[in-house]
Amino acid sequence: MNAPIVIVGAGQSGLQVAESLRSEGYDGPILLVGDEPCLPYHRPPLSKAYLAGEADEAQLTIRAPAALAKKQIECVTGVSVVAIDREARAVHLSDGRTQAYAGLVLATGSRARPLPVPGADLAGVFALRTLDDTRRIATALEAARTVVVIGGGFIGLEFAAVAAKQGKQVTVLEAADRLMARVVAPPVSDFYARLHRDHGVAVELGAQVAGLDGVAGRVSAVSTADGRRFAADLVIVGIGIVPNTELAEAAGLTCERGIVVDECARTTDTQIVASGDCTARRLPGGALLRLESVQNAVEQGKSAAAALMGRERPFAAAPWFWSDQYDVKLQMVGLSAGYDEVVIRGEVEARRFSVFYFRAGALIAIDAINEAGVHMLGRKLLDKGHRLAPEQARDPHFELASALT
Amino acid sequence: MVMITYIEPNGSEQQIDVPEGWSLMQAALSNGVEGIEGECGGSCACATCHCYVDDTWAERLPAAADNELEMLDNVAAERRPTSRLSCQIKASADLAGMVVRLPDVQS
Ligand SMILES: Cc1cc2nc3c(=O)[nH]c(=O)nc-3n(C[C@H](O)[C@H](O)[C@H](O)COP(=O)(O)OP(=O)(O)OC[C@H]3O[C@@H](n4cnc5c(N)ncnc54)[C@H](O)[C@@H]3O)c2cc1C
Ligand code: FES
């Protein structure tokens, strides 16, 4: 039998590559290898609906076994790829097998960044990345009363919202002087700090965690560098991710903050493509862009499948992302880094407004809060390169849609 | 289980027993129905789970929330009065026999 195209990592991106290979007309064998014990699932609900008990595991699973079989996608779970032999065009698996490949896809994703302080390994301290993590957290949350979230980024804040809604006493410790500082402007950070405080969450900014204390191996408190101490019987660490690049590095592929790929998801080896959280994409200007999002997992997955079929399908759309906290939906489009002007449009008090980011007068990003329409319009504006001037965004009588023509 | 008929873009019909409480998007994905992408996993954030609900059923469904309506204004295929996001429709006994048609593009 012909060697299959082997996809390492059975996450959303790996599955996308497999399905896109079929829509690109590839009819050879496909083998998806995943080290988690389950079939590919949607990760975003883990800190949202699933954690809140609004969905069960089967609902998160993207395709049931029969749907994979129909497309002749073979998926082995609970097995990891431990090494790549580029010369022999084969991978070594954790179950001792060696598997030849006709093409190789690295969709290894990322893992939670470990907290580098004493006590981080105490019982009751969790990262939130996998279905398994979430299951254990949900059980621990039932019994918990005081919850400390380390890191005021998306995942930590979404978790804080779920825990607060369940009546827990929640504290968020953020080292920076505002929430989600890496990605949003101060007005958005301030809005979210207020939103959480309104729901009874203590938001502590400038709180650098120094260590965790425990009693009989279980976490009991978190202390900060400035000497404060926060009691906790459950701690969630959400301080970012680390891309899983070790396999690629060991195989000699270029990695820098991720597996380096071009706009068509190609690595430095023509037989190997990579997609999703594990990659860093080289932009035409030379800069590297690492995105951690569903859109990136899906779009790069499509690029990777096309590339294996010898076609170019560059991923060039403006990045988008969302976050659900309480009844507020944040939808972001574009990259706001490097902005020199922001315009706020809408009603902050009514929790319905958008923040427009400009650089040298050009629109580069929009954060929409409970304004899905503005977000979707922003995608069109940025993808098609339409111009919107700061004065227009600022003018409440200006019809945003007219910028599309 | 609630029997729902999905009509794929090429016209073929799939009848699926959807567990109560599941969204029509989840059941479509799980069963490999063609014509629904459901990229965001049901967060009402991607608009790639667009469907047309048969007239007689459209009015029986709970009304769409503002967020869904705004996303619907931006679907890739034609927006019709019967357009809904299938991730926002939860299967319940009173929907048994419902028919949804899937558009030819989602993104
Ligand atoms: C709690 C949470 C909430 C999120 N919310 C949002 C959101 O609201 N919006 C959004 O856009 N994004 C969100 N994300 C991010 C989004 O889920 C990821 O960007 C996306 O899942 C990336 O997909 P992926 O396939 O690249 O990686 P992953 O989903 O990480 O999948 C990679 C898989 O490969 C496996 N693997 C790694 N190495 C090997 C190996 N050597 N052998 C075999 N298998 C291996 C991993 O275990 C994993 O199962 C969220 C993420 C989390 C954790
Ligand atoms: S699945 Fe994304 S909007 Fe329905």
UniProtKB/TrEMBL annotation, chain B:
InterPro entries: 2Fe-2S_ferredoxin-like_sf, 2Fe-2S_ferredoxin-type, Adrenodoxin-like, Adrenodoxin_Fe-S_BS, Beta-grasp_dom_sf. Its cofactor is [2Fe-2S] cluster. It comes from the Bacteria. SUPFAM superfamilies: 2Fe-2S ferredoxin-like (SSF54292). Keywords: 2Fe-2S, Iron, Iron-sulfur, Metal-binding. GO terms for biological process: P450-containing electron transport chain. Residues 2-106 form the 2Fe-2S ferredoxin-type domain. Belongs to the adrenodoxin/putidaredoxin family. This is 2Fe-2S iron-sulfur cluster binding domain-containing protein. It comes from Denitromonas iodatirespirans. The lineage of its organism: Bacteria, Pseudomonadati, Pseudomonadota, Betaproteobacteria, Rhodocyclales.
